[in-house]
Amino acid sequence: MSIESQTFTERYDLLGCIQCGRCTGGCPVTVRADLNVRRFVYDAYNEEKLEELARLAEIWDCTACHTCAVRCPKGLKPLEVLLGLRTMIVESGKVEPTVRDALQSVLLEGNPWEKARAARSDWMEGLDVKIAEPGVPVENLFFVCCTIAYDPRVQTIAKNLVRILNKAGIDYAFLDDSEICCGSEVYTLGEEGLFEMLVEDNTAFLNEFSATRLITLSPHCFTTYRKQYPDLKMPVLHYTQLLEELLREGKLTWKGDLQKKIVFHDPCYLGKQGDVYDEPRQLLKSIPGVELLEFDRRRERSLCCEGGGGKMWVESTSKKERLAETRIKDAKELNADIVAVACPFCVLTLEDAMKGLGYEEEMRVAEIMELLGEFVEA
Ligand code: SF4
Ligand code: SF4
Does residue 263's CB lie within 6 angstroms of at least one atom of ligand 2? Predict the structure, then answer.
């Protein structure tokens, strides 16, 4: 296994760690897996131990929720040590077949779902979608996301958004089949070389468009473009920020009402990593009849659904209750009718947990766009 020329100690500023344990104390997966991130930060200081550490199964339990980074009083990013160890495994070629296939699919088809590049915009069929052209000025350029583009369960997010944008009459355009993965999961799975290639390709590609701003549908693309694309020439927003702006400007109106109790689950990549907490709530509150509830663990303290950090392609080492199940049970205790989310991964993990618990008859998991799409005036 090769290690990058910079040592772990230098790269992750390990000498800055005071071993206070706040990272492990806040880590949500400690309740179900043997992951002690503080210990990894300590042990990684010993370069001779790195190969042994990289072989520990729990490095794959991290969901990249960033709670440890938010809580570290020294401003370190403890999770990056785990991702660095994953990189060592990826470089050695000894990854799980599911991970290998996902990474290869990104390289060959521009998405981790092993779907054809040419089918990326099939979701647009039958819709009146404006397509971006390089050099033609556009105010809001939309980036859809691999999961939303290909997974029928969450394609509704994009479809409803198009209907709402057309209704609001704003200047927008979507990318066609030429859109490729932002690399969020590639990065957290530890494939640094492929991630760097995606950053270079996507930066060059997106900068060709004369867009005022880039709007992402997934919080994972949102955080990745904002934080890991230093040369991108446009600011990046999540769609909830744009719609909240349209709501304030009176450009969105809803028909009918929804007499339901809704609790909003803060996605890690939107909240903890993006500081976007109020806009999704404002959108939900704007639907007439909605009673908005709150989880005890919300906003910065929100519980992770375990959908990020490449976990869609890696089985957990634990057989204990999944965090998504805990979340659904919390919602049940609140008597919520709907668990609303603003992330495709949260939809998939929480809905799966809800079905597994047998709550389908009494509860629903819905992305905010699914709900708003049902109430947009035709
Ligand atoms: S929170 Fe930061 S300083 Fe404290 S043990 Fe973890 S990495 Fe070290
Ligand atoms: S990113 Fe989240 S899951 Fe990973 S070590 Fe940090 S707190 Fe734990």
Answer: no
